[in-house]
Amino acid sequence: MNTGAGTGAGTGAGAGADTGDRATDSATEAFVAHRNLLFTVAYEMLGSAADAEDVLQETWLRWIEVDPEGVRDRRAYLVRITTRQALNRLRATSRRREAYVGQWLPEPLLTAPDVAEDVELAESVSMAMMLVLETLSPTERAVFVLREVFDVAYDEIAAAVGKSPAAVRQIAHRARLHVDARRPRRVVSPREARAATESFRRALETRDLQGLLDVLAPDVVLVSDGGGVKRAAVRPVVGADKVARFYLGGSRRAGFTVTCEPTEVNGSPALAVLLDGEFDGVMTIRVENARVTALYYVRNPEKLSRVTSETPLTLR
């Protein structure tokens, strides 16, 4: 009797364990398959890779509580969880953004070269577009990212943000008008952008004032983010002459030797800046008509850990 009972219990437990293992494997497989998409959704909503990773962790914890076999569209379900968690975090961090010291820039994100070839995706994660998204309300931002970048259906977005499909359509229309009015002008080809970036790098390293003036657009804007930890311009620096002298004057006064290493950040050419051989920050460069129109320089150490430790992402 005891032997029979023991064998029966063991067999039942083993079957239950096998079922649980299969469900876990299925959940893991689905999550891994869509992880890049989920990360990109969270990053475009938050502007922080660290926060996006936290959102993915929260998404995973909620996802493993669900039986994946009972989910008809796993991609939509995972996007819904991610969006809700990102919205919660975005609302919670709004005060932190308001109290930020100096100019705030998104956390630089190393991207694989193929991202730059996908024009729509590259624009959506560009520093310029991420700053435009900062001007939207949390719900508008979620709706815009899901609809305009990932073409998610209105009813799926409605389930994610807790609105009716009709309300989501109105929000999407309003957000689209808002973004279009502030959207950066058309981006150039990756090849043209890299050529201008190389000219800028060469002029910066050799302290060639005329070389900088030749590659900088007359109305170029420099935005630098030190987070109150490292020195940075409190307000944007505007104009080729002011930007060139800001860089050359700063390095000359400090006595630093500036070197730069080309990289790809947020789907655009960028430079990893070294002062006397020590990594200092990441400068993302926007190019239009073969000239540099914007420079986004992140020096805040809290935003740079992934740049030096992570491999480039493909985002989809």
Structural write-up:
With 316 residues, this protein is of the alpha+beta class. The chain has helices spanning 2-46, 49-63, 74-92, 94-98, 113-117, 119-125, 127-133, 138-149, 154-161, 165-182, 190-205, 209-215, 240-254, 305-309; strands at residues 216-225, 237-238, 258-265, 268-275, 278-288, 291-298. The protein contains 14 helices and six strands. The chain starts with a helix and ends in a 7-residue tail after the last helix. Residues 1-13 have low confidence and may be disordered.
Task: Provide the descriptors you would attach to this structure in a database record.
single chain; 316 residues; alpha+beta; six-stranded mixed sheet; 14 helices; 6 strands; 15% strand; disordered N terminus
Overall average pLDDT? 87
Strand adjacency order, main sheet: 2-1-6-5-4-3
Q: What proportion of the residues is helical, as a percent range?
A: 55-70%
Shape: elongated
What structural category do the secondary elements indicate?
Answer: alpha+beta
Please give the largest β-sheet: 6 strands, mixed
Counted by DSSP, the helix tally is: 14
Quick take:
By secondary structure, this protein is α+β, with helices and mostly antiparallel strands. 58% of the residues lie in helices and 15% in strands.
